[in-house]
Design a protein that fits this description.
- The protein is an alpha/beta fold.
- The protein contains 19 helices and 22 strands.
- An 8-stranded mixed beta sheet has the order 13-22-21-14-15-20-16-19, sandwiched between helices. The protein has a 5-stranded mixed beta sheet with strand order 3-2-1-4-5. A 5-stranded mixed beta sheet has the order 8-7-6-11-12, sandwiched between helices.
- Bound molecules: fe (ii) ion (FE2).
- The site of fe (ii) ion has 7 residues, from α6.
Length: 558
């Protein structure tokens, strides 16, 4: 049984994965190949990469499953919202919504486009509920036999937050909070109000939050006292007097993009993050109560809020937590790829996901061809890990390109930029040389799993950089470049068995410095997708202030 799982909703983060007999073989987001960040187009390049990896033709697929339902239910829901005044939509909004649904109908939810690109295949086309696909992507990769499963995002076709009960491979629906009562919408609208890009730059608000003070109340926009929460969608959208009109009257004018950040912006970021965390806790509490289960699985874009996740993990509310690392819509492909197992009362496979190295790899011969093509001087390394560690200990900023590309938004040691976390200036150095990003956004550490308890107060097992933990007070001065202003960090704990090469790099760095921690940020320039091919890596390397590139077994220096 070979299934293709897809995310294609023409909104953002199109992706594809391929599953053989319940085993996930390969997954990649379209943006990495097309180089269009958050690419929302039909994921034909991602699908082709899946087929190539599995060495099969499209007509050998048994099923193609979209993590988005057919257009009907979503359209009916939006009409209902409009009719009951639940959404303050303008004429233009109605037109945009109608055009969207009509075009999805025309494309048969994507099935027609699939056939256009890949022929008239025998595969069955399946469409699953968006939140169900998210829920499967969390539960079926958690390794928990029983779990409370929570999905929180901007919106599915009609859902905003949903709770599920996973047990013995089955997934029972427990609760749904319909759109527009949406935590994702709340956060993304405030992201826009603060002058950042909604559905993309929520990280920036989360990073800015600890610089603010608890001075601002957002009760007019979200009720976090309700169980689980209520969003005042009309006020969030702005009641008819232009975007952000209600925010403007309550909180002052929206921030102009790229303009100076002042204390008011910081305080608003603080309030948004605080409200989101409180609401996330309240949904979790409800999920634990309704399922009577203290293992928690999270997915949906809101579950990328590593601060909120860290708070839940440290709250004592749950015993174990698994956050699907591709929590946003790219990860929906993983759920869709397994949806067929629930048919006729069936059970999902369930294997703990221990890494996200699910994408394409390039071997030394492919890499060497690229380096030769560009006539770059390079040297072949006996031990890339040791060389990289040596460079890092000398304060150099390093491009690190190895093995299979990560699936999900984080670089986890395959497509990474690495630096020395001990240098208090390193954050600024990496920002100036490479990332050109906002001063307040923290960098994250990779550390040997064995050292987690020595450096961190919680999150001893955090392979995906999706849970925030507090750095132990005595260690904050040791790794200042990866410790945020509030003493937190978003760690990746690296296991020897899972990624031996990356683990050994940390080990070699520790031999030289006594510190088994390095700064790890994604291998890309500001506003670009993470590098995919050796060509992408070389281009990014020479367009930035990185000092050296360790790519496969080769070293390129400037
Ligand atoms: Fe979603």
């Amino acid at each position: 049984m070979i299934t293709l799982g897809l995310n294609y909703n023409r909104k953002h983060d199109s992706s594809a994965c391929i599953v053989r007999d319940g085993e996930l073989l390969f997954a990649v987001a379209e943006e990495r190949i097309s180089r269009i960040k958050h690419d929302s187009g039909f994921p034909r390049l991602a699908i082709q990469a899946c087929l190539d990896f599995a060495r099969i033709r499209a007509d050998e697929l048994d099923e193609v499953c979209f993590g988005w339902p057919t257009p009907g239910p979503g359209f009916r829901h939006d009409l209902k919202c409009l009719a009951t005044g639940g959404l303050p939509l303008t004429y233009t909004d109605v037109l945009t919504t109608t055009t969207y649904f009509l075009s999805m109908w025309h494309q048969q939810g994507g099935a027609k486009v699939f056939r256009q690109w890949f022929g008239d295949v025998k595969a069955r086309m399946r469409f699953v509920g968006h939140h169900l696909a998210h829920a499967i992507s969390a539960y079926a990769y958690s390794g928990f036999d029983e779990a409370a499963v929570v999905v929180m995002d901007g919106r599915g076709a009609w859902e905003a937050t949903s709770i599920w009960h996973g047990k013995g491979g089955k997934l029972e629906h427990v609760f749904t909070m319909p759109f527009p009562d949406s935590l994702g919408l709340f956060y993304s609208q405030f992201t826009g109000y603060l002058g950042f890009l909604p559905n993309s730059d929520e990280w920036k608000v989360m990073g800015l939050a600890p610089y603010g003070q608890p001075k601002i109340k957002l009760d007019a926009f979200i009720d976090t006292e309700a169980s689980p929460y209520r969003v005042q969608a009309k006020r969030i959208f702005g009641t008819g007097r232009g975007p952000y009109s209600d925010m403007r009257s309550a909180l002052g004018p929206p921030r102009v993009p790229e303009s100076e950040i002042d204390d008011r912006h910081k305080d608003i970021a603080y309030a948004v993050q605080e409200a989101c965390e409180t609401a996330m806790m309240s949904v979790t509490r409800m999920a634990v109560e309704k399922t009577r289960c203290r293992n928690l699985c999270l997915a949906g874009g809101v579950a990328l809020n590593s601060k909120g996740n860290g708070k839940i993990a440290a709250s004592g509310l749950v015993d174990k937590i698994f956050v699907q690392p591709a929590a946003s819509d790219d990860g929906v492909a993983l759920g869709a790829g397994l949806a067929c197992f629930l048919e006729n009362g069936g059970r999902l496979p369930n294997k703990a996901m221990r890494h996200a190295y699910l994408g394409p790899a390039f071997d030394d011969s492919a890499i060497e061809t690229t380096l030769r093509t560009y006539k770059l001087p390079y040297t072949r390394l006996d031990d890339p890990a040791a060389t990289a560690a040596e460079f890092l200990s000398q304060g150099k900023i390093l491009g690190w390109f190895q093995g299979r590309m990560e699936f999900g938004p984080r670089a986890l040691g395959s497509r990474s930029i690495l630096a020395d976390p001990r240098d208090p200036e390193m954050n600024a150095k990496v920002n100036n040389a490479v990332k050109f990003r906002e001063w307040w956004r923290p960098f994250a550490p990779s550390l040997k799993k064995e050292a987690a308890t020595e450096y961190l107060e919680s999150a001893g097992d955090s392979p995906f950089m999706i849970l925030t933990a507090q750095v132990r007070p005595e260690k904050r001065g040791v790794i200042p470049a990866v410790t945020h202003v509030d003493g937190s960090a978003r760690p990746q704990t690296v296991e020897k068995e899972i990624n031996p090469l990356y683990w050994r790099l940390l080990d070699e760095f520790e031999r030289r410095t006594g510190v088994p921690v390095i700064l790890n940020t994604s291998f890309n320039l500001r506003g670009e997708a993470i590098v995919h091919t050796p060509t992408d890596a070389v281009r990014t390397f020479f367009s930035s202030g990185m000092d050296a590139l360790v790519i496969g077994s080769f070293l390129v220096e400037k």
